[in-house]
TrEMBL record:
<dbReference type="InterPro" id="IPR047817">
    <property type="entry name" value="ABC2_TM_bact-type"/>
</dbReference>
<feature type="domain" description="ABC transmembrane type-2">
    <location>
        <begin position="23"/>
        <end position="251"/>
    </location>
</feature>
<feature type="transmembrane region" description="Helical">
    <location>
        <begin position="226"/>
        <end position="248"/>
    </location>
</feature>
<keyword id="KW-0046">Antibiotic resistance</keyword>
<dbReference type="GO" id="GO:0046677">
    <property type="term" value="P:response to antibiotic"/>
</dbReference>
<protein>
    <recommendedName>
        <fullName>Transport permease protein</fullName>
    </recommendedName>
</protein>
<feature type="transmembrane region" description="Helical">
    <location>
        <begin position="59"/>
        <end position="81"/>
    </location>
</feature>
<dbReference type="Pfam" id="PF01061">
    <property type="entry name" value="ABC2_membrane"/>
</dbReference>
<keyword id="KW-1003">Cell membrane</keyword>
<dbReference type="GO" id="GO:0043190">
    <property type="term" value="C:ATP-binding cassette (ABC) transporter complex"/>
</dbReference>
<dbReference type="InterPro" id="IPR051784">
    <property type="entry name" value="Nod_factor_ABC_transporter"/>
</dbReference>
<feature type="transmembrane region" description="Helical">
    <location>
        <begin position="102"/>
        <end position="130"/>
    </location>
</feature>
<feature type="transmembrane region" description="Helical">
    <location>
        <begin position="25"/>
        <end position="47"/>
    </location>
</feature>
<dbReference type="InterPro" id="IPR013525">
    <property type="entry name" value="ABC2_TM"/>
</dbReference>
<feature type="transmembrane region" description="Helical">
    <location>
        <begin position="170"/>
        <end position="188"/>
    </location>
</feature>
<keyword id="KW-0812">Transmembrane</keyword>
<keyword id="KW-0472">Membrane</keyword>
């Protein structure tokens, strides 16, 4: 119970920092929203072959949601790096606090901040014409996938937060993750891509996750992509969590 109690207290501390600087959450949503506006209203006519902005925003929204999460986790790395350089982790180490609780507080704060950003992006998508007849159960399924994806990437973010030598280095790792949806099925079908690019697009984690969310929103039977998506997310989560804990113990030992 001490781990849960310590994590709750530390999460409250971290959340206070986030609520005092809501501009970070707004900034997180700005780039994905800008991309959504650009692709729907500038490129959408050519890409969707006149299917309409509402249809295309529904098609690309899953990829935009993953991009939002990838953008948001950079602040997790930033906050951990700040705590490391200011010596706060060292102070926590001298107190009777569960070691894992310190990192979990940052992870749960990231989850809360990303949920707010995702809600903002969903709101803009609705204004742009996103529509789905998916029921409550389907929405819970999508929420579960997005939460698992957020947890997996956030634990990845913990590692550069602990090991980076500068602020820019702590957050720069997220840039490839933000643009990974561009080489996936997020914006166009992978069948339209040339051979090597198509192979990469079909064998990276974003594509099965996007396809699964898209099928759920479209009320179609979910393909085997869901198992591939879950395998990717659980695998990334397990490996990054284990590696982050090893790095953390070495840093504070």
């Amino acid at each position: 119970m001490s781990v849960i109690g310590d994590t709750a207290v530390l999460t409250g501390r971290s959340l206070k920092h986030v609520t005092r600087s809501m501009d970070t959450i707004i900034t997180t949503a700005v780039v994905p929203i800008a991309m959504m506006l650009l692709f729907v209203y500038v490129f959408g006519g050519a890409i969707s072959h006149g299917a309409g902005s509402g249809t295309y925003v529904t098609y690309l929204l899953p990829g935009i949601l993953l991009m939002t999460i990838a953008s948001g986790i950079s602040y997790t790395a930033f906050r951990i790096f700040t705590d490391m350089t200011t010596g706060i982790f060292g102070r926590f180490q001298s107190m009777p606090i569960a070691r894992s609780g310190v990192l979990w507080s940052h992870v749960l704060t990231s989850l809360a901040a990303n949920v707010i950003s995702l809600v903002v992006v969903f709101g803009v998508a609705l204004l742009m014409g996103f529509r789905t007849g998916a029921g409550v159960g389907a929405w819970f399924a999508v929420a579960g996938i997005l939460i698992l994806f957020t947890l997996a990437l956030t634990w990845v973010a913990v590692i550069p937060g602990l090991t980076a030598k500068s602020i820019s280095g702590a957050s720069a790792f997220s840039y490839p993750l933000i643009f990974l949806p561009f080489i996936s099925s997020a914006f166009v079908p992978t069948q339209t891509m040339p051979g090597p690019v198509r192979w990469f697009a079909e064998h990276q984690p974003v594509t099965p996750i996007v396809n699964t969310i898209r099928d759920i929103f479209a009320e179609r039977p979910v393909s085997t992509d869901i198992w591939v998506a879950l395998a990717w997310m659980v695998g990334i989560l397990a490996v990054s969590f284990a590696f982050a804990m090893v790095v953390y113990r070495r840093k504070i030992s």
